[in-house]
Structure formats: C-alpha cells, structure tokens
C-alpha cells in the first residue's frame, strides 16, 4: 500500500517503529499484525501464535534499544482462545511486560490479530536503520536459518520446530548495543532483504562476506538461510573500532553506495528473488 | 474472551483506555479493531470505514479528556485501499492527529483492521467509568439514534446515512468536560448498555428518566434509539450543582445500588435484550 507508507508522518509504516517525545521521555511505538494462512499456519497451536505476536513486536522495540512498557492487543476471537491466552501470558511473563488493554472482536474467515507495543527509549538518539556510515562494520547477533528449519519441521510433522514456533526477541542485547551502533534493525524478513533495507535507508552499500554470515543450517542451505526470515536476530552497523558489549558476528563492511545496496561477495543483489521474504 | 479481560493489567480490555505514567506526563492509549461483515458492511465505502476507525479511537480518548498525539494503523489490504487512504487522511486532518506508523498485511477472507490511538491526558485523575457518586446527576451530550437511522438509510439505499457513515468524536467536549465529571465514557454500544457498564463499574445505579433522553428519531423509535450504538455521544456523571462548560442533557440521577445497575423510569433493566448491542 504505497500511498499509505508515503503519508506524511507514516514514513515508518510497515518496517519500523515510531519515535515520539513525551515530556522528558522518548517513546518507541510499534504495531504488528498477523493473519491466519499468511503469518501462521491454519491449525497452528494458538499459544505459539500468541508467543510470536508478542515476540515480533518486542523485537521491533529491541532494535531501537527500547524497554517495553506495555502492550495493547487487537484480537479476533477464534477456535482456540484459551490456548492463545496461555501463550500470551507466557510471552508477557517472559518479556516482563504488562497487557494494558485492547479490543476483542468477533470475526469471519481468517483469524487476524494485532499487537501494539510501547517502549521507553534507553538511549537517544534512538537507533534507526538510516545511520550506517561508510567505514563501519556490519554485524549480526547470531545465526540465521533456524526458523526456516523449524518451519520445515513443523510442516513435516517431525523434528524440532521450536525456532519457528517460539522465536526469542533479543531485548537485552538490543538495549546493550544501542549506544554503540550507527544503525540497527531486527531481521524479520531475511538477512539479505533487511540488509538491503538498512543500506537503502542509510544510502550506503553493505558489502557482505557470504562465508562470514553465521547460519544454523548445513552449508548447502546457506543461500536459503540468508533469505528466510523469522529469526529475529539483530543486524547492525558500528564503527570498526568499537568494542561491542554483546557477542556478534562480523559479516561485512559499509562502503559508499555502489551498484546495489547489497553486495554479496562482490555480487550486486537486485530484485526480490535475490533477497528474501516480502510480505 | 473472558479469560483475557481478567488478565492482570488487562482489566480495561474491550471497553476502555489504558492510562500510563510516562515521566511527568500521563498517556492514554486505546486500540479498536474492525472487521468486514461485523463492524462494517461488505461493500461499504472504504473511505467511510477508515473515517469510522479513526473516530471510534478518538472517541475513546475524548471520554478520557485526552488530546490525541498519534496513531498506529494495522491494515489488511483490501479491494479499495485508495479509498481507505482517502478517508483515513480526511479523518486524520479533521482530528489533527498524525499517523505515526503501523503495519499493512496481505490477508484472506474478511478484511480486518485495527488502530491504536495515543493521547496525552489534559486533566488528572483521568476520568474513568468507575467514579460516579450517589447524588450525582447523569448527562448525555446529545441525541442518540442518529446512527441507527443512518444505518437504515444506508441499507435501504435511500435517505441520509451520514450519521452512521461519518460519526464525529466529541474530542473538544470531552477535554472541556473532564475536569468536571466524576465518570465519563463514550456511547459506542447504546446508551442503556453503556449506562449499565458505567453504573456497574461505579457500583451505583443510574436512574434514567426515559423521557429526558434526547433522541434523534421519532418518538415511536425511542426504545430502539436508546439501544443502538455508534452515535459516540458522551455519557457522564457530575455533582448536581456543577456548571458544565458544554451543553448536555440531564437524563437522570445516580442512586445507591438498587436491584439493577440501570433503572429506566424505575424499571430495573437486566440482560442483553434490555440493553443494547454487544459485540
């Protein structure tokens, strides 16, 4: 919905958090929506769906170094509300964040739900995806591809699907990193696509060393792992000489804008088929 | 979803706003969701749907005397996104509130959308529905039943449907009233049902004089008008001797809890069939 994202003040729609000043505090706000058949499988355990809905929103705050203050839920009643509630409570407890309110509705067709997370910035300026500087190093907090393997296990009904069903937002890591980074975002839609977005927003190129990207998969799935989302690792850039407070993997360098926002071993990536999951 | 509304910290779910302290400011947060076939007619002009989505959320803030700071949209793409955007921009302009961000998703089946509104309290304590005191007078800001007539006009394809399609949240009135009221809420689900909720939250009874309730309908539709929602008038209680800054209609008295939270001309109302729209 291009028109909407172009709306004045809505530049962050779909991809990012809103940052507003309230008195002496800086608030970070995000809203993510999920719908059956698109963001979760029909028949998937509603407790896992609730867990993920909380996690994706907390992950957005984490990338801003924001401490969660509370959440508002918009929930279409479905077939497994008790399971949803159980997973919701588990996640709220895990991230130590209260549910402040929201709305439940009856609905028809695919079950849809949304969550708004409100956080307090712990460091200003709040990191954006637009701050990467030529000469910075690029990092990722951990391996990608785990959620992909989990998704395949869930679909096949065998193997460990936890990484897909129960991803964990890196809240503490995001808060620890934010004073040190020049740009940061969570990898929700795949490393390469999100790197493309970060580089585009920063008007630079990320030159990624393919072999340095940590993967949770066998080597023959490396290309898939870099394109699959849902891992919620943090992608960030920082001056090359900064000592990081969190273990992270160096995956490349920030260079002046080249033929593409992302070079992978020097090869310019273009178009969606090269990048990852767009939704 | 009883379990969810009983969640610690989620006492306000479905019906009210969340109130949180941020530094020296008090924020009021609300989230309302709408789904095709439930909250709007399939095929209804998407611009009207967007207008209403903004209005219902602003109306929740108005009942708290909160000045809107911004909104986050969760939007499932549909058949008329351009019209939705047009109505959204119209409403944001009308209420002078920015769209800060949100999420758009693909979806299947009934189109569903949610909006989070963030407001700053203009007066503390923020009015709740739980503060009505025995001896207070009960008021409504204006006539009920206009949206019902508008809905009927829209369904029949003739007559003026604007009151249903384009309700207006009483933002300025809510802000002006909030220092003077003991309890306040917007009438979104029908005067009698919302009076029942206010009285229940306040542990009092509202003794309503049926003939004093202002209605936008012919007299023979009075009972329907008091049970239909979507008018977004404000229902409030205030000490009987308070001079109100806004024109309002005296509709009854707050008395000690009687046989029902609402007496209508002395008749105790019970159960949903007596009250209004539950959704």
Main β-sheet of chain A, in a few words? 7 strands, mixed
Numbering strands along the chain, what is their spatial order in the largest sheet of chain A? 7-9-6-10-8-11-12
Number of helices of chain A: 8
What is the straight-line distance between the termini of chain A? 11 Å
What is the annotated CATH architecture of the largest domain in chain A?
Alpha-Beta Complex
Give the uncertain stretches of chain A in residue-range form.
8-12
Write the CATH homologous superfamily of the largest domain in chain A. PurM-like C-terminal domain
Please state the CA-atom Rg of chain A, rounded to the nearest Å. Answer: 18 Å
How would you sum up this structure, described in words?
The structure is a homodimer of 279-residue chains. The first copy, chain A, has 279 residues and is an alpha+beta fold. Chain A folds into two domains: 120 residues, 2-Layer Sandwich (60s Ribosomal Protein L30, Chain: A); 138 residues, PurM-like C-terminal domain (Phosphoribosyl-aminoimidazole Synthetase, Chain A, domain 2, Alpha-Beta Complex). In chain A, 27% of the residues lie in helices and 27% in strands. A seven-stranded mixed β-sheet of chain A has the order 7-9-6-10-8-11-12. A five-stranded mixed β-sheet of chain A has the order 1-2-5-3-4, with helices on one face. The longest helix of chain A is centred in the first third of the chain and has 17 residues. The radius of gyration of chain A is 18 Å and the shape is globular. About 2% of the residues of chain A have low confidence. At the A-B interface, helix 1, strand 1, strand 2, strand 3 and helix 3 of A face helix 1, strand 1, strand 2, strand 3 and helix 3 of B.
